[in-house]
Amino acid sequence: MAGDENRFDVLIVGAGPAGMTAAVYARRAGKTVMILEKDTFGGQITHSPKIENYPGFQAISGAELADKLVDQVLALNAGLDVDAVTRIETEGNWKKVVTERAEYYAKAVIVAAGAKHRTLGLPREEELTGNGISYCVLCDGAFYNDKHVAVIGGGNSAMQDAVLLSETCNRVTIIQNLAFLTGEARLIDKLNSTRNVDFIFNTVVTGFEGDPVLTGIHLRNTMENKVSRFDVDGIFVAIGQQPENEAFRSVCPLNEQGYIQSGEDCLTATPGVFAAGDCRVKTVRQITTAVGDGAAAALAACKYIESVVW
Ligand SMILES: Cc1cc2nc3c(=O)[nH]c(=O)nc-3n(C[C@H](O)[C@H](O)[C@H](O)COP(=O)(O)OP(=O)(O)OC[C@H]3O[C@@H](n4cnc5c(N)ncnc54)[C@H](O)[C@@H]3O)c2cc1C
After folding, report:
1. Measured by CB atoms within 10 angstroms of the end CB, which terminus of the chain is less buried, N or C?
2. Would you call 165 helix, strand, or coil by DSSP?
3. Peptide bond into 212 cis (omega under 30)
4. Atom of ligand 1 nearest to the CA of 40
């Protein structure tokens, strides 16, 4: 078994809002805590230039909120390191957490590995994210009141996004790579009867215009192989989300989309393994719901630790 320096009461995978909140609650309950983050402290919010729906802050940049979260967990003496978790195993009551660089042992593990929005994979997409390209209507829809936006995608999420945007935007164009929409008939009917919504079918986005802010997109009709340009104030990419949970599959059953199945208390099928935030099956993926999960998972983890003889 690893030395004491690699043994913790609670090990948290991912330093996004869910993982950081779990650390705050577990430390305040007197538990030793290590957070392992493979990429950026703060998680997805670090890609958001402006957050306007997190209570307590009228507006705050994702980077600033991430810094505040890091300061808070460090002030509470939680461990925070850069490393990618590749596997979790059960050894008796202990959980063995294998990373790219080390092995850890923990009484409880909270998986808060988040999810990523699928991107179009085009040049300049990252640079224009937050400057005309968005992946989240709940987060950014309000920045486009009375403007013309395009929703990229034709499934249920794209259609729900388009319905929401049509209530505040001047015009909403749905751009779909297929000849038809693939979501529920109810949503298709709703969009067909909404005056400020129009559709472009059999078409893919091939590039972006505008610097530093998006002003238009390049399109290619896949039937006629015809290219064109299209003026828009913003685009919402709604082609799905991608959880990154394969490394945890042996201890956390995943649903068909790859999200971790867990109860309201964030407990997974394995005692002592909890899932919090965007990585688990849930309906709303936002900072508020991630931090709620972080608190619930940490408190459930503490309760679990107290219930076991170590
Ligand atoms: C551009 C953008 C703007 C957004 N704007 C808003 C907004 O305005 N308001 C709002 O409420 N929400 C917003 N969101 C959504 C919000 O950021 C997420 O809902 C929230 O970050 C989820 O938190 P989380 O901790 O569950 O996951 P994440 O933030 O995804 O954090 C998970 C972390 O786990 C790490 N990780 C994954 N696998 C491993 C592994 N194997 N080992 C170690 N680390 C791992 C990841 O690198 C990541 O840092 C936005 C998202 C994006 C992308």
Report:
1. C
2. helix
3. yes
4. 49
